[in-house]
Amino acid sequence: MPKNSKAVKRELDDDVTESVKDLLSNEDACDDSFKKSSLIVSTWNSKLQYILAQVGFSVGLGNVWRFPYLCQKNGGGAYLVPYLILLILIGIPLFFLELAVGQRIRRGSIGVWNYISPRLGGIGFASCVVCFFVALYYNVIIGWSLFYFSQSFQQPLPWHECPLIKNKTSTYVVPECEKSSATTYYWYREALDITDSISESGGLNWKMTVCLLAAWAIVCLAMIKGIQSSGKVMYFSSLFPYLVLICFLVRSLLLRGSVDGIRHMFTPKLEIMLEAKVWREAATQVFFALGLGFGGVIAFSSYNKRDNNCHFDAVLVSFINFFTSVLATLVVFAVLGFKANIMNSKCIALNTNKIAALLGNGIEASLIPHHINLTQVSQISAEDYHQMIGVIKGVKEDDFQTLGLQSCSIEDELNKAVQGTGLAFIAFTEAMTHFPASPFWSVMFFLMLVNLGLGSMFGTIEGILTPLIDTFKVRKEFLTVGCCVLAFSIGLLFVQRSGNYFVAMFDDYSATLPLLIVVILENVAIAWFYGIDKFFEDLKDMLGFTPYRFYYYMWKYITPILLLVLMCSSFIQLIMTPPSYSAWIEEEAKEQTLPFPLWAIVVCISLVVVAIMPVPVVFGLRYFNIIDENTSGLSTVSYKKGRIIKETARPGEDDDTSLIQGKSPSEAPSPMPGNSIYRKQSGSGPDADTAPNGRYGIGYLMADMPDMPKSDL
């Protein structure tokens, strides 16, 4: 396909007889008659655009604020070992599997699994539901980033210091800010204006409502023309975060204390590797980092040419994702090391002043080393302070606690693990206030978060739109606008003052278990229902070579077992951990863990049930023949200059056969002449129907016929 071509137009002079199965299996074949056919095919403009789309989808906010936290929490550099092992055993095989089925069948998630096994057609619908749940709250986080981005064009930054309250007699610091910190106060009070519990709605936060509207408008405009519009946006949204991360790394390495953070990060705690929890969290991170089960991977790969080397793509994107996580971890801990040194210096200054005040009143002057001058606090180094504290603690061992002195250790500061919004909107923003030219770095950081979020959102929305367009044959423009308007309307739940608690609820309960079940069923559907041997033949036919035998054993035995273990452990953890959330108490200016009320627990359970419900429902409808399984197959159709007209399938043709049987043109049976033909329409002028931006499989426009089924089900 030419690089600058948005579509491939083919003219057909001679009649060609082929079934849909033959067409989809051989659309990239080089026979002259097919090259001339009058079809419009939607594909990626270039391989680079496709790789950037997959990288943009898989590399998201979790790489920046989840992976560094897990690395710190689970043994530092030692955590990379189980992560890499599980990336090879779970991540790459499943990513390769999704790429392969999407590329071969050229459908979204609903069509793919419907054709693999009609009784498992609910897998695709479950993926769509989970994608929709995730999109609802994920775009709220992009809205938060847009708000901070818009507030970053100020010097000093608005979260640089606590606001003051002035009255007739005095000026004082806002109590809530004084008890916490300037960045914490700005996040909870100025940005979110959060309530004390999930039960208190507090009404809409108009600032965040506007930001959410802007976020959905960006997503809608980028997705409205399908991959032709979103693909171009990918060049910026996928590459810009790497530019920012590299700039941040170079800048942070020049700051005092950055090496302390990196050293702390990569100091391995090998004993922690033996804990089962570390492996479970590493497996979960691998699973979500690659976007498995969402349908976005399948949707993007469905626009590929049939002979694209998807095995190379799977390995490449997986390792790009891993190295991005390591790069982000380096940046985060270099910046946190700088912040820890600043906080440590403040701690030393504060406690040195306390010691000076206690001289002769609890601490004897003889306990202070002679070379330390307490009147020059700024000249006291960390080594001097620790020497002084060591002497005082040795002499005043029994009374040391009553003196109220702190040890002021950089390690203690770095051990204060933060993740998610706490890392991005509190810890990182606080560190950036100490950067020279802090507004510039704040603008870059939050623009990076917006781009990381948008890259993942494009894949998530594609995981909703592509299968629905394939199934219900609607125009992509209308469905995109309708989906975004509906999601924004429901998303107002997340921009009320208590919205942050609902974001946490959806993040914890709407995706984890449902996606694990979806991916297990995907793996089982290919390895056991469709047949791993047959699938390997398909891959050989598609790729031109047989994949490594390693994948055979992974898909058939190892990966399903590991996924079942992961699902069971996640399920046990959910049961053992009482449903709770972290609430911000305004009066005390601190976070407090509160149990969910009964109605919220019902909502949590409903999220899991609704996401999984399509799987048993579709299975039951198929099993009891309430919906005829034959309706999922491919009927033979006539293609006429951008139109599809349904006709009767060949007698005896097996409708349940998957599209990915991998038969060559010579092996595949041809339908009887007259049943399904290409014809060049006479009189096709400018008024003739043209193919839409949406697609039926590879871009055909459905004829508006009364007997056309509305759904693949």
How do the strands and helices of this protein lay out in sequence?
Blueprint: E1 8-9, E2 16-17, H1 20-25, H2 32-35, E3 40-41, H3 47-58, H4 61-65, H5 67-73, H6 80-105, H7 109-116, H8 122-150, E4 164-166, E5 171-173, H9 175-179, H10 182-191, H11 206-223, H12 227-253, H13 258-266, H14 276-289, H15 296-301, H16 310-358, H17 382-395, H18 400-403, H19 410-414, H20 420-432, H21 438-472, H22 476-491, H23 499-509, H24 512-543, H25 549-576, E6 580-585, E7 590-595, H26 598-612, H27 614-623, E8 637-640, E9 643-646, E10 677-678
Antiparallel strand pairs: 1-3, 2-10, 4-5, 6-7, 8-9
The rough form would be described as: globular
Query: For the residues shown, what is the average pLDDT?
Result: 79
Largest sheet: 2 strands, antiparallel
CATH first level of the domain at 44-329 and 420-514 and 581-624? Mainly Alpha
State the low-pLDDT regions, or none: 1-41, 632-713
CATH fold annotation of the domain at 44-329 and 420-514 and 581-624: Hydantoin permease
Q: Distance between the terminal alpha carbons, to the nearest Å? A: 33 Å
| Helix coverage percent | 55-70%
Strand order of the largest sheet: 1-3
Named at the architecture level, the CATH assignment of the domain at 44-329 and 420-514 and 581-624 is Orthogonal Bundle
Find the count of extended strands (DSSP E, 2+ residues): 10
Strand content: under 5%
- What radius of gyration results from the CA coordinates? 29 Å
DSSP helix count?
27
Structural class: mainly alpha
Keywords: Glycoprotein, Membrane, Metal-binding, Sodium, Symport, Transmembrane, Transmembrane helix, Transport
Main location: membrane
Binding site for Na(+): 56, 59, 63, 321, 452, 456
Family: Belongs to the sodium:neurotransmitter symporter (SNF) (TC 2.A.22) family.
